[in-house]
């Protein structure tokens, strides 16, 4: 009897991966390629969207071949992606007209500052669920028009198209210049500052604020549904789900019920808390977003705490400073000491996101003395990630009106045992990692498989979840309180330094 599978295309901040999964949610194969990062100026980060598409054309056939199967055995493809990264391209040539501007980029700070003087920020948040910030796509699109005004007329005609990375890849997968589908899903659209969180459609007032023509925007669709059929690089696979990467991780953790949460630790770190059918407006620095929507059903919403720099801090120490040779080495170096030696690092490379939302903040290292060693710095790097996670969990607890009893984690950084133990210590609750840590790709596969009736219901997916590891708190409350106080002092200095430099 022929066996069938589901594939997931995971287009991330540093690499693109294609994975094939079986009915038990087990990964059968994976193909991955790293793409180039461009830093044209301070606070600016770009990707080559064409390079990413070429890599997708390589990894999809490779993953299917490595699985030892025929493409006809793949019943559905789920597409997941870095979310706020902005691409604009020519409908007729298929060529981007500018490098993709990445979610970490802060070049739109002046635009955001100017707009903030003329609008009601409370109204913006009520409409979109988001604060006015450089983090989201809308300000980047306005920046592109300001830099190249000649783009406006073809954009108004629909000859220049806008999308986040999901839309760019979907358009190419389904035919590109020969009738490619120009669409996005509600999870990605909810990260643009342009979608109304209640209507799940582009908001005319927000389009007017950023002066963006509706004609260039993708159609907003439910997360689980029909997004067309692939033409390239493999013909005939149904694209059955499109979902932003962090919402995909929530799906992969099977956090389908209101009150369930997860924390992904990758390039950045992202905590999502399922709020069910209710849009909850945070009072403590989180954002409201769409968790997912199934075609024909009411959407499910979430609160999110977004951290810009987590694994990116380790990568920066490796690639820019030459501090370590490989990313896993950071744990080995940090374990040469028992504490941070009084050193704290706040990695505000792109300002601070949740729960502070401070575009002006700039990174600082504080507490350096002659005693500070390489080991202390390595430990401070890992602690910087843990402190930020603690901040967003505390915000979530405050919004929910209760304290989390444990934290479910996933992502590449969860292989770092010292980091996971530090998170447990600072939160004072157990930290739990599932057997399958690549929950972003798994979640995209789950969404596509449900959409295509490969799996009958969510209960089947829940039964696939298995615990792999657990870390319990190992410090007392007085030390926890002291460490958090020192961290918050460092964050305050980061904000003051950023404002003094402006």
Looking at this structure, what is the CATH superfamily of the domain at 5-253?
Answer: ATPase, nucleotide binding domain
Estimated radius of gyration: 22 Å
In terms of structural class, how would the helical and strand content be classed?
alpha/beta
Please list the strands of the largest sheet in the order they lie side by side: 14-15-13-12-18-19-20
Low-confidence segments: none
Largest beta-sheet details: 7 strands, mixed
Q: Can you tell me the overall shape?
A: globular
Counting DSSP H or I runs of 4 or more residues, the number of helices is 16
The average pLDDT is 92
- CATH domain class name of the domain at 5-253: Alpha Beta
Tally of extended strands?
20
| Secondary structure: helix percent | 25-40%
Level-2 CATH architecture of the domain at 5-253: 2-Layer Sandwich
Strand content: 15-25%
Which topology of the domain at 5-253 does CATH recognise? Nucleotidyltransferase, domain 5
The termini sit apart by 67 Å
Overview of the molecule:
It is a single chain. This protein is 35% helix and 20% strand. By secondary structure, the protein is of the alpha/beta class. It has a domain at 5-253: ATPase, nucleotide binding domain (Nucleotidyltransferase, domain 5), CATH 3.30.420.40. A hairpin with a 3-residue loop joins β1 (5-11) and β2. α9 (245-252) packs across α14 (439-451) and α12 (374-400) packs across α13 (417-427). The relative contact order is 0.13.
């Amino acid at each position: 009897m022929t066996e069938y599978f589901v594939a997931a295309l995971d287009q991330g901040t540093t690499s693109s991966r294609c994975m094939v999964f079986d009915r038990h949610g087990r990964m059968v194969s994976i193909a991955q390629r790293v793409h180039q990062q461009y830093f044209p100026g301070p606070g600016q980060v770009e990707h080559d969207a064409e390079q990413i598409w070429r890599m997708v054309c390589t990894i999809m056939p490779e993953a299917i071949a490595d699985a030892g199967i025929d493409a006809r055995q793949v019943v559905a493809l789920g597409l997941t992606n870095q979310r706020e990264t902005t691409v604009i391209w020519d409908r007729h040539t298929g060529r981007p007209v500018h490098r993709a501007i990445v979610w970490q980029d802060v070049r739109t700070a002046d635009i955001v500052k100017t707009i903030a003087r003329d609008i009601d920020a409370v109204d913006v948040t009520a409409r979109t669920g988001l604060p006015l910030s450089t983090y989201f796509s809308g300000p980047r699109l306005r920046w592109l028009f300001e830099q190249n005004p000649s783009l406006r007329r073809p954009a108004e005609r629909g000859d220049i198209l806008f999308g986040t990375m999901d839309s760019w890849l979907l358009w190419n997968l389904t035919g590109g210049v020969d009738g490619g589908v120009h669409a996005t899903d509600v999870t990605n659209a909810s990260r643009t500052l342009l979608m109304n969180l209640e209507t799940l459609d582009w908001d005319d007032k927000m389009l007017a604020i950023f002066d963006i023509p509706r004609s260039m925007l993708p159609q907003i669709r439910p997360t689980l549904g029909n997004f067309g059929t692939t033409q390239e690089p493999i013909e005939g696979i149904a694209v059955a789900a499109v979902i932003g990467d962090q919402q995909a991780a929530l799906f992969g953790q099977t956090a389908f019920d209101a009150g369930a949460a997860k924390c992904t630790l990758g390039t950045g770190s992202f905590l999502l808390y399922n709020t069910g059918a209710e849009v909850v407006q945070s009072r403590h620095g989180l954002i409201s977003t769409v968790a997912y929507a199934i075609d024909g059903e009411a959407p499910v919403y979430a609160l999110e705490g977004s951290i810009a720099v987590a694994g990116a801090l380790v990568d920066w120490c490796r690639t820019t400073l030459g501090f370590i040779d490989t990313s896993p080495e950071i744990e080995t170096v940090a374990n040469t000491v028992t504490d941070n030696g009084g050193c704290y690092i706040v990695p505000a490379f792109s300002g601070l996101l949740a729960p502070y939302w401070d575009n002006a903040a700039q990174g600082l290292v504080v507490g350096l003395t002659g005693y500070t060693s390489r080991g202390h710095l390595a430990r401070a790097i890992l602690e910087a990630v843990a402190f930020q996670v603690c901040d967003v969990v505390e915000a979530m607890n405050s919004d929910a009106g209760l304290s989390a009893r444990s934290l479910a984690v996933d992502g590449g950084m969860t292989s770092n045992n010292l980091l996971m133990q530090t998170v447990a210590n600072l939160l004072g609750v157990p930290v739990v990692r599932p057997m399958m840590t690549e929950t972003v790709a798994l979640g995209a596969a789950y969404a596509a498989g449900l959409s295509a009736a490969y799996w009958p219901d969510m209960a089947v997916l829940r039964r696939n979840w298995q615990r792999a590891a657990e870390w319990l708190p190992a410090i007392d409350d007085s030390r926890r309180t002291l460490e958090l106080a020192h961290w918050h002092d460092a964050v305050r200095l980061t904000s003051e330094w950023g404002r003094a430099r402006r």
